[in-house]
Design brief:
eight-stranded parallel β-barrel, 29% helix, elongated, TIM Barrel, Lyase, Ornithine Decarboxylase, Chain A, domain 1, 415 residues
Amino acid sequence: MNLFNYREGELFCEDLPISQIAETAGTPFYLYSKNTLLRHYGRFESSLAGIEHLICFAFKANSSLAILKVLADAGSGADVVSGGELFRALRVGIPPRKVVFNGNAKTEKELRTALDCDVLMFNIDSESELNLLSRVAREMGRTARVALRVNPDIDPRTHPYISTGLKENKFGIAIENAVEFYKQAADMPNIEVVGIHKHIGSQIVELSPFVESLERVIGLVAELNQLGLGLRFVDMGGGIGITYDNEEPPSFEEYVSAVRPLIRNSGCTLIVEPGRVIVGNAGVLVTRVLHVKTTGSKKFVVVDAAMNDLIRPSIYGAFHRIIPVKYRDDAARTMVADVVGGICESADFFARGRELPELEPGELIAIMSAGAYGSTMSSNYNSRPLIAEVMVDGTQQKVIRRRQTFEEMVALESF
């Protein structure tokens, strides 16, 4: 449930009309609801009651400092995949012992930084990475706590680009090789084996892939316990989907109910890494119609946002609802059109062949469910400055990232 709702034909974010926010912020801009964030996080936290657990928000979904600070203050830890994300976690006050370091290409510099601040654990992706971490930890006189990322070979039934738990994916260690790998890790200097990690993909809308993959992991935990390698943490990763269109993903309560017996039997603390499910429907992209263009039998709605601002439709074919910020008196009239930006790519679109209310130049529209993988994947393609981001808390609004200027866009360059 989110706090973007119509009141007398006008779209509000919490208690502010979006058209009013646009007057001061300019367009396009990302808009977030603080209390939707807190509602989503709070529901997940409460559903985990009775299970020893740690929620580590996946920074890759949205790494805005303001959003991270809201979640940090609510008690969240951090799932980071780069030195930059670790920097952000520390900047907003997340204790290092609530940080898990993921990723399949950690550099020596990143490992040194994470060891120096003593993160909770490294989720190790390969033998080569483990060897590197052992050497670096030995040189620094530190002990690195690790979990091994196990690939359970479970189909998450999601988009192939965001599937990560199959044998053909680049992530993790094949589950059939995991026992030998754990034995090897346990014998390495300056390495303490403390957990097991799996993450099978993103935007998963069925419970069965989560349960099947966890069953395999818990079976491996039992086998490792018999070998004397008692683990303390089971990291389930993230992946719970959200509603973009007609999807019906499991609720937090359904998810936790399904995994609770398995986790209790493992005797381990559960770590979860939600991202999209916390922030996805807490944010929208607000953009203004520039032109309505007809070419033959085809109609295009040209807006001032573009694929550099929100690339998900271009690379995933992702669906985002598109709705007017204000309904006109003739709102019953509809049109079928492509909604496109101004970038010199035919892939620059937000919707194709979409039935929409009749739109005119100057109108504001909201591209919904844009809080996850929107801002974090944005770029300066076509030398377009990064857009502003605004957060609303009740009747208050705050610019949490101002619009980039042309001078700032080229500030790191020289000739």
